[in-house]
Amino acid sequence: MPDVQAAAAEDKVEAGKHAVESARLMKAGEDDQALVEIDKAIKLGAGPAAIRRKAELLLDLGKPQEALVEARKIVKLEPENADVHGLLGSILDTLRLDSEALNEFDIAIAKKPMDRGFRAWRSKIYERHHQYEKAIIDLTVIINDTEMRNRSKLLERRGNCYSVLKDYPKAIADYSAALTSSYGRSELLRLRATAYDKQGNHGAAKKDLQAAGSMDEVFEPPSTLGPNK
Questions:
Q1: Does any domain span residue 212?
Q2: Backbone phi, then psi, for 217, in 5-degree steps?
Q3: Three-state secondary-structure class, residue 131
């Protein structure tokens, strides 16, 4: 019995070494070799964290089907871990298995309601399926997060959702906020112009289209691109 325990302890130490080396290789961008090392760790009895890393590596290497197999293993081992449900959801999303992906993100978000990453993934699936009201809810949670620094793209996406739903005042507000929170982009001005036009404010629409047409795509002071009344 002592020999068995000693051997198990040695395997655990070796598994740890391979896991550490795998992490180092990942940081160095050597994913193929990192996968070799994490496989060695798993064979020596490394736990769910190693299997999760393997799933992430396989996904990064463009092997989502293989990543899916590993992710399902982790979920069985750690069913209460929100992060593993999120990982499985992201893999399913990559494979465009949307219904299953939504289910995993629903579970993950139920466990970690304010997680920006989970909601960002889920909102994109909602948008893809034209469930704009649900996408808006997730995007709003992310946008309202005080730690979010770059809201411009998120505001644009929410503005697009409002525009499809014909809520043009809210769409215009989001496009305007996006423009003032980042360098100006002609595409945003054109989106706002469309919303103004559909709202009946043709003068504002024309002004935005003219600005978009003459904009320097490299740089435009944000202060000149705010609310257009």
A1: yes
A2: -65, -20
A3: coil
What predicted TM-score, i.e. pTM, was given to this entire model?
0.80
pLDDT tens profile 34-72: 888 888 888 887 788 889 899 999 998 999 999 999 999
The answer as to whether 109 is a domain residue is: no
Of the candidates 44, 77, 127, 176, which has an alpha carbon nearest to the alpha carbon of residue 55?
A: 77
The domain in which residue 191 lies consists of 149-229
Q: Are 181 and 155 in contact (CB under 8 A)?
A: yes
Does residue 81 have a pLDDT over 60? yes
Question: Could you give phi then psi for residue 76, rounded to 5 degrees?
Answer: -65, -35
For residue 34, the model assigns a pLDDT of: 87
How many other C-beta atoms lie within 10 A of the C-beta of residue 163?
Answer: 21
Asked, for residue 33, whether it belongs to a domain, the answer is no
Q: How many domains does the chain have?
A: 1
Is 145 in a helix, a strand, or coil? coil
Q: Is residue 40 part of a domain?
A: no
Q: Look up the CATH number of the domain holding residue 157.
A: 1.25.40.10
